[in-house]
Design goal:
OB fold (Dihydrolipoamide Acetyltransferase, E2P); about 50% strand; about 110 residues; mainly beta
């Protein structure tokens, strides 16, 4: 299955056991009434979300998983592929150039 949306939030990786780690993220699905859906990344796939950040538009391909435990059914959406364009991370903004003829003052030149 696949779906497109905007990343709302990304969680940190949780090490559940020596061989099992989980990371979740929330995708906002557009529509008349936007919906929030939580997806799960497991083991090596926890790194798939690293190039992306909140606000990025992505497409995820996932499997729907369901299990019964103590008489209750639990579902999860396990992502195995993420595609999209990541926005550049906040880079330092270029310094404004000072007008010609004005020299930049250092802290030592301050009058107080």
């Amino acid at each position: 299955m696949n779906i497109k949306g905007k990343i709302k939030s990304v969680g940190s990786t949780e090490q559940k056991s020596a061989k099992f780690s989980v990371r979740t993220f929330v995708l906002e699905l557009e529509g008349k009434y936007p919906e929030l859906v939580e997806f799960q990344l497991v083991n090596d796939n926890t790194l798939l979300i690293n190039p992306f950040s909140s606000g990025d538009e992505i497409e995820v391909e996932f499997n729907l998983k369901g299990r019964e435990y103590n008489g209750r059914v639990y579902n999860s959406l396990q992502v195995w592929k993420i595609t999209g364009e990541s926005k550049p991370k906040n880079e330092s903004t270029p310094k404004a150039e000072s007008p010609q003829g004005e020299s930049e003052k250092s802290e030592e030149d301050l009058p107080f």
